[in-house]
Amino acid sequence: MNRCVLAISMSLSLMSGDAFADQYQSVTLDAQSTETKTVFMAVWRGCEEACQGFKDYLANNDYPAEVIVMNANRDRSKLEAILNEAKEMQPDLVVTWGTSVSKALLGTRNEYGEETKLGDIPALFMIVADPLGADIVEQHDKTGRPMLAGIRNRISEDVQIRAMREYFPVDKVGVVYSDAELNSNLNTQKLKQLAAEMDFEVVESLYLLDEEGKPLPDQFDARMQQLVNEGVDVVYVGSSSYNLANTDAFTQSAIEHGLPVASAYDSMVTKSSALISVSNKYYRVGQLAANQAVKILFDGAVPGEMPIAELSHFSISINMAVAREMALYPPIQLLRFANLVNATPVISRTDSEGNGRIMDGEAK
After folding, report:
1. Between β-strands 148-152 and 93-97, what pairing exists: parallel, antiparallel or unpaired?
2. What pLDDT, on the 0 to 100 scale, is given for residue 182?
């Protein structure tokens, strides 16, 4: 895809705040639906942006719902107790955050077929990187489970590669991950399947694991050096809880080895030192999940009959401080869509090939 075509596709995909709000279908409450509903939300790492977006949507629109948040705090051993508490409480809706939590509270289709571990309690999942690959749903756009609805939040890998290529040449994509993480494995498989179609090579670097299946410490430099030795153009983080939890050490090591980091996690750019991200904001994913929850709680929608919802836009973020440090200045066409982090007003210049690029600007 040439730059003009990508620019047009991004322009059609990106929406203003008002247009974003228009995609939600509001529910008018009648007298019988004003009883306060209970939402049991199970999360993996506290009430982060998606959780807060969910709660804010209900509160700001005056829906009578109480949200009870149960935090696993990244500890899988707590998930069974959370499941048992949900079943004992019998809330009006259970919301699960993330793949680990969703599989623990819902079960896979292979295990439970059309049912879930929650029995007849309606459920809704969000922030699951690959619900089909994780065997949580039957189809890409439908759960196939009567009591389960869901939100799809990931930007496809082909869009990620095209965005990278708008920035700089990409022939070899490096991935650093733990093969003990299901989502990382699924994401790498997708990249490999796409590689032949889009003419790039995937170079893998796996973390060494301890007896509990957790990455041994202080491996970032070794992993990045391996990728340098194999000539990769970019390090891509599509799905990795470990890389996200150690984002500063991960991105700084990449920079020290001269490797730009592209990520599906916006926070790796906005709060750390990845160069570019193509993502959906978690806060807005939470708002969309709340909108779907309202349909179940107050409009009588059957979860399994609802399509798996997704946002109709994506966001591009570029860290200008990293761009300057690595002398990778963004082309003008990306700047029309990108959220620039660590940048003040900039001066555009023309490179030796006649392409407009952003060259100057001071970090805030």
Report:
1. unpaired
2. 86
